[in-house]
């Protein structure tokens, strides 16, 4: 389990990192697009735990699709965070956000971006490299030319929205799947059917959703700035039985993510 920091500003991110590390978290996830890398870096330096004990992820902005721009952005991320290396670097999206899941696929551009990722890996600037929001053919495009295989694909995966085919493909290719918004960005918390199952195990809906993803073999990175939620999210010492896992997997898919539905990852379109 890691801590997500999407939608936190620098000050909030710094405090969230300190709180999470004090609770026991060691994996922190940020991105160039979040605008809080400096805050995450401040949190890392002031959390009281040695840098080498932490696992820090950031993501190359979705709009950067050439070698030079990607390499420059990596140096900028390192400088903003005040780090000597990044544990995991991810391409945030196969397409710029304003063109997310549209016709132009950016296959050639992503190959060039991946060369920069490989270069950063070889130089020691990053310890692992991966992808985010890449579909199977996006991944196959990279696998066809890469010298270093993607190690991670970070995707939207939660109760009622589980892309099983993509998850199986990644796992077959030995690509670790990370689930962002594993609690559906809060949109599932009031689902009556999910609440019935959570009550059966004596846990919250959030805990049930996190355990669900973990039992699918996924890494989860729930975002919160609330220390109490951080603690509860980490208390997952229970097992969902197969019948309930199937029920959760086959629930009607969420169609609306509330105030955040305009984000491309939730099906919206940026103007």
Helices and strands, with pairings:
Layout: E1 3-4, H1 10-23, E2 27-29, H2 37-46, E3 55-60, H3 67-81, E4 88-91, H4 107-123, E5 129-132, H5 136-143, E6 152-156, H6 164-172, E7 176-180, H7 192-201, H8 205-215, E8 219-220, H9 227-233, H10 242-249
Parallel strand pairs: 1-2, 2-3, 3-4, 4-5, 5-6, 6-7, 7-8
Key descriptive features of the protein:
alpha/beta; 8 strands; 8-stranded parallel beta sheet; 271 residues
Task: Give the gist of this structure.
The protein is α/β, with parallel strands linked by helices and 271 residues long.
Report the uncertain regions: none
Nearest-integer average pLDDT: 97
Coarse shape: globular
User: Looking across the biggest beta sheet, what order are the strands in?
Assistant: 1-2-3-4-5-6-7-8
Q: How many helices does DSSP assign?
A: 10
Structure description:
- The structure is a single chain.
- This protein has 271 residues and is α/β, with parallel strands linked by helices.
- Helix content is 40%, strand content 11%.
- It has ten helices and eight strands.
- It has helices at residues 10-23, 37-46, 67-81, 107-123, 136-143, 164-172, 192-201, 205-215, 227-233, 242-249; strands spanning 3-4, 27-29, 55-60, 88-91, 129-132, 152-156, 176-180, 219-220.
- It has an eight-stranded parallel sheet with strand order 1-2-3-4-5-6-7-8.
- Strand 2, helix 2 and strand 3 (55-60) form a beta-alpha-beta unit.
- The mean pLDDT is 97.
């Amino acid at each position: 389990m890691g801590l997500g920091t999407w939608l936190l500003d620098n000050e909030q991110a710094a405090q969230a990192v300190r709180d999470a590390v004090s609770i026991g978290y060691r994996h922190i996830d940020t991105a160039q697009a979040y605008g809080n890398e400096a805050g995450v870096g401040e949190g890392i330096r002031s959390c009281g735990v040695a840098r080498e004990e932490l696992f820090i992820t950031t993501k190359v902005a979705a709009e950067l699709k050439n070698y030079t721009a990607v390499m420059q952005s990596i140096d900028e991320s390192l400088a903003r965070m005040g780090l000597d290396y990044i544990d995991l670097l991810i391409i945030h999206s196969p397409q710029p956000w304003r063109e997310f899941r549209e016709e132009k696929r950016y296959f050639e551009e992503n190959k060039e971006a991946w060369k920069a990722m490989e270069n950063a890996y070889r130089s020691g600037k990053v310890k692992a490299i991966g992808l985010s929001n890449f579909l199977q053919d996006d991944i196959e495009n990279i696998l066809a030319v890469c010298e270093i295989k993607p190690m991670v694909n970070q995707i939207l995966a939660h109760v009622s929205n589980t892309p099983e085919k993509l998850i199986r493909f990644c796992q077959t290719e030995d690509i670790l799947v990370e689930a962002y918004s594993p609690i559906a960005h809060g949109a599932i918390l009031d689902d009556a059917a999910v609440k019935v199952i959570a009550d059966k195990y004596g846990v919250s809906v959030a805990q049930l959703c996190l355990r669900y993803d973990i039992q699918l073999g996924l890494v989860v990175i729930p975002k919160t700035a609330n220390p109490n939620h951080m603690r509860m999210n980490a208390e997952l010492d229970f097992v969902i039985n197969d019948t309930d896992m199937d029920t959760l997997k086959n629930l009607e898919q969420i169609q609306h993510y509330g105030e955040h539905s305009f984000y491309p990852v939730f099906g919206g379109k940026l103007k």
